[in-house]
């Protein structure tokens, strides 16, 4: 092999001689004609002809000409990819009709290219192959390419953005051409020591894959000319660090608040790069946790691309919705890379493994979309990863793994991630000054409002020239919405359209609805393809809703055509689906991929569609469920008016089961349903609330009518599906009640019916949060028996637990730790022995309640009504009883150490043998109170501060 330092690639004269059939002018004319004909479906043949013609030049002898051919081909292929990827922006514009009917004059462009290239010289050497993006030719060619794009009809910012993406597309094309046509460039191997010429086939495939990773972040976002990289803002994150145990006031305060950790803010990419550099074999797994749209997947792609460009470690990026977690991890990775097509070897095989490998598993929540069964799949996957990492790193660090996932799924697996800094929680673009107090931010990262940075980048890339976040978007609920990366972008798209009126009460679902309309208007009108003629907007949205429901029932983000067909056939949309499918066959999936889904492969010989952003699927599923509620209500109402029409309760519940039984509702979908209900007429929501109460009452008496479903399942599966449908019933009822603020009156057939049902829905607790227990607010449960129930963390806000018929609501020995009982009516309730530590009972009515032996330590009882309550043996240590009504309450004996009783009303209360250490009675009313046996007995309370360790009491009454 020669040690020639470089090959001069000044323009081969032969290429510009008239004897050569193809020159710059002809090539660009072919490229231009391809764009002109893009709207008529001839792009592939014309653009392909242009590239193939280059290969027929016969320039094989001269090394400089061969090098030029490689660069030339790569440039043409890169330009072709760029134009093809953005052609929807061109051909959908009304103003381009005349432009598309004639050829473009390329004389100015070609003359400028010829002149620039005649005065330039290009030399390729080893540096070129190591850093092909630094090729000086780009500076020459980008300007005429941009001008040509503008001539085609792109606006100036779009043309600028597309031309700026040329280098990344060029590198990808360069790697592909060298890998696919090595024989064309054989003479280069004799002249240069390059990563291409020295590399084995395996190394070349890695180079192609890493170049592809870099190209991914340059590909257009939705129907935009720019890619993720152009508007990406580096993310901040935090990790938990255990507080050092110190006997001081601050530690005691934090301990009382059950907060034994501090949150350390870091720059996410810098933190992970340091982790990679350290390469400790016993600390080889990191987890990124964040809510939907927090930027997890965007960061994962950017991080993969950046590490690939550095070239210090091999990077494998695996979206988990394309991954089979049921296999052994090594086998599953091998199957994934084979299906992906870039690598022919398994990088995890012992004899083929890399010396250093980073695997990024994106979206752990994709493995947890079907209730507890899939949650176990996610847990098994995490443990399998840990096991394999330990095995690969037995003697030295070879494998590091980065996993991203939504908060709830990461929390469910948090016990498997116990190392220091192992879980990194993504922070929003904007953190309020008050919220910053919750973090240790040594580098002042949180002082920057990253929304301003994003909007500046977006303004530049889109041509709208925003200098920061528009002031009308920095108010009310929009402040929180724009702080989340994905939602901020959706707001930008809708804001540019100008059809949504943004206010401090803006509803996120209204923005999604506007974007649905935008997709239809931008893609399905104007130059409408013959295969989809006749589809109206309402039918377009209706089909998307059914596809979303099918994905929720299936794999979370993907579904098969067969599943979609079954749904559509059941509801009479088969004809519209046939039109849609024909469109997909004719290559219109780019349109749908812009926001919602794309054809993503084959499952069991059936084509699959996939949502590109899961939150769009959740939004559309929420719309479909709300549509189902409306139909159920209407059908029941019809039956009320005409016995020959509509549905009875069993049929209505069967329809609900069809909608909701295959999958378990989670908090994310619930929030979309709640916002969708906000867009409905409140009187309709109130009627639906009553209908759902009626269905639950029927279900408690007769069970879910699973026998009415078309296809019967095994008992265990049918039972699990019924559980899903019942949980969804309770959740949607609660969503209605939160909006109407009315009580939900469920008619329980027996006094223990609700207790039995909630026990079934709660199931075996896996962690502190149980979703069904969050949906108990505004319920009427008078007279219910709830013995020894586990309501830890439950939300009973504004529920009615009063027994108007004097049959005590019984919560004996129930666990109500951390429960939200704000404003609840528990008059005369029996809470004997209940655990209410850390519960929120603000404004609750506990008059005449029996709280004997109850634990109310750290509970919030501010402004609660405890008149005549029995508080014998109650623990009120560190509780908040500020402004509480304790008139005639009976305490004997009690621990109220460090309790806050400021402004409490203790008039006529009976306090016997209590421990008042550090209690605060400031402005408390003791009129007529019996202080027998307490530290206060016989005391002159005006001197209370001096006599009892300075315990603060101001303006007390003299007893």
From TrEMBL:
N-terminal signal peptide: none
Domain of life (superkingdom): Bacteria
Presence of keyword RNA-binding: no
Keywords associated with the record: Coiled coil
Limits of the NACHT N-terminal Helical domain: 21-228
Transferase recorded as keyword: no
Coiled-coil ranges from the UniProt annotation: 824-869
Protein name: Pentapeptide repeat protein
Species in which this protein is naturally found: Nostoc punctiforme (strain ATCC 29133 / PCC 73102)
């Amino acid at each position: 092999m020669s040690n020639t330092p470089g090959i001069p690639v000044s323009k081969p004269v032969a290429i510009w001689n008239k004897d050569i059939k193809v020159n710059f002018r002809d090539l660009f004319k072919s490229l231009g004609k391809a764009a002109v004909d893009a709207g008529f479906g001839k792009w592939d043949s014309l653009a392909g002809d242009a590239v193939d013609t280059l290969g027929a030049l016969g320039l094989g002898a001269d090394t400089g000409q061969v090098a030029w051919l490689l660069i030339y081909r790569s440039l043409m292929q890169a330009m072709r990819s760029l134009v093809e990827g953005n052609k929807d922006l061109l051909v959908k514009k009304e103003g381009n009709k005349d432009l598309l009917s004639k050829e473009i004059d390329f004389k100015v462009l070609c003359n400028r290219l010829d002149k620039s290239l005649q005065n330039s010289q290009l030399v390729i050497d080893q540096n070129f192959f190591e850093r092909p993006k630094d090729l000086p030719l780009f500076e020459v060619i980008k300007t005429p390419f941009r001008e040509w794009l503008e001539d085609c009809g792109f606006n100036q910012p779009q043309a600028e953005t597309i031309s700026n993406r040329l280098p990344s597309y060029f590198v990808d094309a360069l790697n592909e051409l060298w890998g696919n046509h090595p024989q064309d460039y054989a003479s280069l191997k004799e002249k240069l020591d390059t990563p291409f010429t020295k590399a084995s086939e395996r190394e070349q495939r890695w180079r192609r894959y890493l170049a592809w990773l870099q190209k991914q972040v340059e590909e257009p976002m939705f129907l935009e000319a720019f890619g993720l990289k152009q508007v990406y803002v580096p993310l901040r994150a935090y990790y938990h660090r255990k507080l050092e145990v110190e006997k001081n006031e601050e530690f005691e305060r934090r301990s009382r608040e059950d907060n034994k950790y501090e949150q350390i803010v870091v720059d996410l990419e810098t933190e992970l790069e340091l982790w990679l550099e350290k390469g400790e074999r016993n600390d080889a797994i990191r987890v990124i946790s964040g809510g939907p749209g927090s930027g997890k997947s965007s960061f994962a792609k950017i991080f993969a691309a950046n590490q690939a460009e550095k070239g210090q470690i091999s990077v494998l990026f695996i979206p988990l919705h394309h991954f089979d977690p049921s296999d052994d991890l090594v086998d599953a990775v091998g199957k994934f890379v084979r299906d992906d097509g870039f690598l022919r070897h398994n990088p995890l095989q012992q004899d083929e493994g890399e010396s250093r490998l980073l695997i990024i598993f994106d979206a752990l929540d994709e493995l947890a979309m079907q209730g507890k069964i899939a949650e176990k799949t996610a847990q098994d996957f995490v443990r399998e990863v840990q096991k394999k990492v330990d095995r690969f790193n037995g003697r030295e660090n070879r494998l590091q793994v980065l996993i991203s996932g939504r908060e709830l799924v990461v929390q469910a697996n948090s016990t498997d991630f116990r190392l220091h800094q192992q879980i990194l929680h993504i922070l929003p673009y904007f953190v309020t000054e008050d919220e910053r107090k919750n973090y240790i931010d040594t580098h002042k990262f949180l002082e920057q409002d990253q929304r301003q940075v994003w909007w500046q980048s977006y303004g530049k890339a889109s041509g709208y020239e925003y200098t920061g976040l528009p002031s009308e978007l920095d108010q009310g609920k929009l402040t929180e919405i724009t702080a989340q990366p994905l939602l901020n972008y959706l707001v930008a798209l809708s804001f540019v359209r100008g059809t949504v009126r943004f206010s401090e009460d803006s509803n996120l679902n209204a923005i999604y609805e506007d974007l649905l309309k935008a997709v239809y208007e931008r893609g399905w009108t104007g130059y409408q393809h013959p295969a989809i003629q006749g589809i109206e907007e309402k039918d377009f949205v209706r089909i998307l809703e059914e596809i979303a429901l099918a994905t929720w029932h299936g794999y979370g983000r993907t579904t098969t055509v067969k599943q979609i067909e079954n749904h559509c056939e059941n509801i009479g949309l088969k004809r519209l689906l046939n039109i849609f499918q024909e469109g997909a066959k004719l290559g219109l999936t780019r349109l749908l991929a812009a926001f919602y889904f794309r054809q993503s492969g084959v499952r069991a010989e059936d084509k699959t569609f996939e949502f590109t952003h899961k939150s769009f699927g959740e939004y559309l599923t929420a719309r479909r469920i709300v549509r189902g509620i409306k139909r159920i209500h209407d059908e029941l109402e019809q039956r009320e008016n005409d016995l020959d029409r509509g549905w009875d309760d069993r049929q209505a519940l069967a329809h609900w089961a069809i909608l909701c039984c295959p999958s378990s509702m989670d908090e994310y979908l619930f929030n979309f349903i709640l916002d969708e209900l906000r867009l409905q007429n409140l009187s309709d929501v109130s009627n639906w609330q009553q209908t759902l109460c009626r269905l639950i009452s029927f279900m408690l008496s007769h069970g879910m009518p699973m026998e009415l479903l078309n296809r019967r399942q095994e008992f265990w599966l049918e039972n699990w599906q019924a559980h899903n449908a019942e949980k969804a019933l309770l959740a949607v009822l609660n969503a209605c009640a939160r909006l109407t603020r009315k009580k939900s009156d469920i008619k329980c057939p027996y006094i223990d019916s609700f207790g039995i049902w909630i026990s079934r829905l709660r199931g075996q607790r896996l962690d502190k949060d149980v979703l069904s227990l969050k949906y108990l607010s505004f319920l009427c449960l008078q007279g219910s028996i709830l013995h020894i129930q586990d309501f830890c963390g439950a939300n009973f806000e504004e529920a009615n637990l009063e027994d108007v018929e004097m049959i005590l609501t019984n919560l004996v020995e129930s666990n109500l730790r951390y429960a939200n009982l704000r404003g609840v009516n528990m008059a005369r309730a029996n809470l004997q022995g209940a655990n209410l530590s850390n519960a929120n009972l603000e404004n609750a009515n506990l008059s005449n309640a029996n709280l004997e032996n109850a634990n109310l330590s750290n509970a919030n009882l501010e402004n609660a009504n405890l008149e005549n309550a029995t508080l014998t043996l109650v623990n009120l240590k560190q509780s908040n009883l500020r402004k509480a009504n304790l008139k005639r309450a009976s305490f004997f004996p009690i621990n109220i150490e460090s309790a806050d009783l400021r402004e409490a009303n203790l008039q006529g209360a009976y306090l016997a043998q209590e421990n008042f250490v550090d209690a605060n009675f400031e402005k408390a009313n003791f009129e007529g109170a019996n202080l027998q046996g307490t530290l206060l007995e016989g005391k002159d309370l005006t001197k209370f501060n001096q006599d009892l360790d300075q315990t603060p009491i101001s303006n007390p009454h003299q007893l």
